[in-house]
Design goal:
By secondary structure, this protein is mainly α. The chain folds into two domains: about 45 residues, Arc Repressor Mutant, subunit A; about 150 residues, Tetracycline Repressor, domain 2 (Orthogonal Bundle), CATH 1.10.357. The chain is about 80% helix and about 0% strand. The chain is built from ten helices and no strands. The longest helix is centred in the N-terminal third of the chain and has 26 residues. It is elongated and about 70 Å long. The N and C termini lie far apart (about 65 Å).
Length: about 210
């Protein structure tokens, strides 16, 4: 078996185990058995099991980002962006990746390597959302008032939180998602302000930020 093929089988097996039994089921033996290879090859290709988990989650997350990028690029307003978020929320929850992220975030509280893995995965999503938010706010008065990285991360973090919340209270998460949609409506209202109204708004917000 070619080296690259073995590595890909190990990554695929790890991704499947993470989405199925979960993080606690990951070991060199379980991954090797699922991949149908010798256990020693886990360490040959990745040095440690933690490194294998990190690479597998990065690959899996990047696939998700690539899958949703066309929909993010097609969004023409924050309201449409949030609708993409609804679809992402439903599909990723069904696919098991939300549970994987929940486990990584929990494990990361005491394990620096899992914490780094979680940060790396979140950064892939945050970067994509921030890019989309920057495009959507390009002509908005909000663009002059805030660093687009902030709303990009806020929206990204909000969806992560809602996905985890959904696991214990689906109705509450749905209601929170509806409330978040109000953000898009608010931005659309602000975009409809006259030049004078925008100027007054900037002055009011600037004054509040200095307090």
């Amino acid at each position: 078996m070619a080296t690259s093929e073995t590595k890909q089988r190990l990554l695929a097996a790890t991704i499947d185990l993470l989405a199925g039994p979960g993080l606690t089921a990951i070991s060199a033996r379980s991954v090797a058995n699922a991949a149908g290879v010798n256990q020693a090859l886990v360490f040959y290709h990745f040095s440690t099991v933690s490194a294998l988990v990190r690479e597998a989650t990065r690959v899996s997350t990047q696939r998700g980002v690539d899958h949703y990028r066309p929909a993010l690029d097609a969004a023409s307003s924050l309201t449409e962006l949030l609708e993409v978020g609804r679809r992402l929320h439903a599909e990723e929850s069904a696919g098991g990746s939300v549970r994987v992220m929940a486990q990584l975030l929990a494990a990361g509280q005491t394990d620096p390597e899992h914490a780094q893995t979680a940060r790396d995965c979140l950064e892939l999503w945050f970067a994509e959302v921030t890019r989309t938010v920057a495009r959507l706010l390009a002509g908005s008065p909000i663009r002059d008032l805030v660093d687009v990285t902030d709303p990009g991360r806020t929206i990204g973090a909000a969806f992560i939180g809602l996905e985890l919340y959904d696991g214990v209270d689906p109705d509450g998460a749905a209601a929170a998602l509806d409330s978040l949609a109000g953000l898009g409506i608010l931005i659309e209202v602000l975009d409809g302000l006259s030049p004078l109204e925008r100027k007054l708004l900037r002055k009011r917000i600037s004054g509040a930020q200095k307090r």
